[in-house]
């Protein structure tokens, strides 16, 4: 059986890669992928803590399925917004969003 610490290390790496990608990227799609990495690290934590703390129950798995559904809806809405931004200003950099304010 794999120890809990290994799962938590993978989850922590995913979290920090997602935060780093969100802070350093200027492309909206790359920022969206970084947010998805952060959400995946949270999903790993849900499953791991459920498995090791309450092995006979499925609450962590249901939370994870709910979180995956929410992130799929969030991704669909975000991609629709990004497509609309691209149609208006022909660029999807985060800096170009200032043009839409005025």
UniProtKB/TrEMBL annotation:
Membrane topology annotation: Multi-pass membrane protein
PANTHER family per the UniProt record, alphabetical: NADH-UBIQUINONE OXIDOREDUCTASE CHAIN 4L (PTHR11434:SF16), NADH-UBIQUINONE OXIDOREDUCTASE SUBUNIT ND4L (PTHR11434)
Recorded catalytic activity of this chain's protein: a quinone + NADH + 5 H(+)(in) = a quinol + NAD(+) + 4 H(+)(out)
Positions of transmembrane segments: 6-23, 61-86
GO biological process entries: ATP synthesis coupled electron transport
Locations listed in the record: Cell membrane; Membrane
Subunit structure: NDH-1 is composed of 14 different subunits. Subunits NuoA, H, J, K, L, M, N constitute the membrane sector of the complex.
Keywords linked to the UniProt accession: Cell membrane, Membrane, NAD, Quinone, Translocase, Transmembrane, Transmembrane helix, Transport
Function: NDH-1 shuttles electrons from NADH, via FMN and iron-sulfur (Fe-S) centers, to quinones in the respiratory chain. The immediate electron acceptor for the enzyme in this species is believed to be ubiquinone. Couples the redox reaction to proton translocation (for every two electrons transferred, four hydrogen ions are translocated across the cytoplasmic membrane), and thus conserves the redox energy in a proton gradient.
Main location: membrane
Keyword Translocase on entry: yes
Lineage: superkingdom: Bacteria
Protein's name in the database: NADH-quinone oxidoreductase subunit K
Gene from which this protein is expressed: nuoK
Residues of the signal peptide: none
HAMAP family documented for this protein: NDH1_NuoK (MF_01456)
Enzyme class: translocase
GO molecular function ontology, one term from the record: NADH dehydrogenase (quinone) (non-electrogenic) activity
Enzyme Commission code: 7.1.1.-
Record InterPro entries: NADH_UbQ_OxRdtase_chain4L/K (IPR001133), NUOK/Mnh_C1-like (IPR039428)
Listed GO CC annotations: NADH dehydrogenase complex; plasma membrane
Family: Belongs to the complex I subunit 4L family.
